[in-house]
Amino acid sequence: MAGKTRLASGWWLALIVSALMLTAAVAVAEEHRGPVTLLRTVPIPNSPLVVFDISWVDPDSQRYYLADRSNAVIDVIDARHDTFVRQIHGGFTGFTGCNDTSGPNGVVVSGHWLFVTDAPSRVVTIDLRTDTIVGEVSTGGGAGLRADELAYDPQDGLLLVVNNADSPPFATLVQVDTHTGKLTLGQRITFAEATNGAEQPVWDRQSRRFYLTIPEVNGPGGTGPDGAVARINPKTAAVETMLPVRFCQPAGLALGPRQDLLLGCSVPFDTAGNAWTATDTNSAAPISVIMDARTCCSAAAFHSTRRATRGPRRTRTPPRRSPSSWTPRRARSIATCRACRGRTRSGSIPVTATTISRRAPIPEGRCWASSTRTA
Fold this sequence. Notes:
Largest sheet: 5 strands, antiparallel
Radius of gyration: 21 Å
CATH class of the domain at 6-190: Mainly Beta
Oligomer: single chain
CATH topology of the domain at 6-190: Methylamine Dehydrogenase, Chain H
CATH architecture of the domain at 6-190: 7 Propeller
Structural class: mainly beta
Number of strands: 25
């Protein structure tokens, strides 16, 4: 998708390490009474870090890898000690002025192999013991267009690489020789119904399937309400199902410990179900969606903010139970999740809000709990 470039000013890469150093982060968060706290910054050498893309944390080595387009390198950070380690050069394109033709883009690590995508349609394996390229393929996209985000299946040695800038977008299965790092091009999976690109893939080891966010399905090209998560069988290269997601344009995707998929929505919609704009007379109602990978629908969708143009609403305090046991009580909130066999799990991630706002009637297809944090 256009506009995905992450921007930062100056020389500094701000690392939010609460996800990496949980105990310290929780202590700091409690001290400052905030959900996220900046612990420190890490200086990046050479050109100022202005344009960058995907990052990845290797939990085994506690190394953080960042696709740095400003320097056309992969930056490596020691996330345990919050220090800069080195920059890995791989002949990457750098920033061309257009996301669709820039790189590096996606990064993922498995053992001593670093997999990176680049433009044009380039995928490489880098041996982290020597920082040299040991495997390379082209996914064969349009002239100059990039290969973007990717995910790795370590059980079968397979990458799923997404060409999001092509029309229609497509994904490619790439076989990895786990002994040498050599890459072999596999089958292509085209998403003819995707009208606003294809975004983040993840690998679920329990179902042994890839999941991939499709922001828009059969829409106008950026403002349509219907998106999906594609479930892909790596053995057959078949899209087994398209799990519908409404009023979200899903882009980001992360897999939780109980096969909960957390979707990051890239477009806010208003209370009438249309893409929100600054001149909209209806209030914005942005959400983030949690989807159960084992069933067929969204388990919950949390509102990110209060409505901007409405006054305060009455609130109620949730029951004094653990967040994982709390579910929305309003029948209309869960009516569309009956296909999930009653497994509405709004507590799949901790709900830290102390109040739950009452909302307007829920458009068909949305199953959500609304949360607002009080100071």
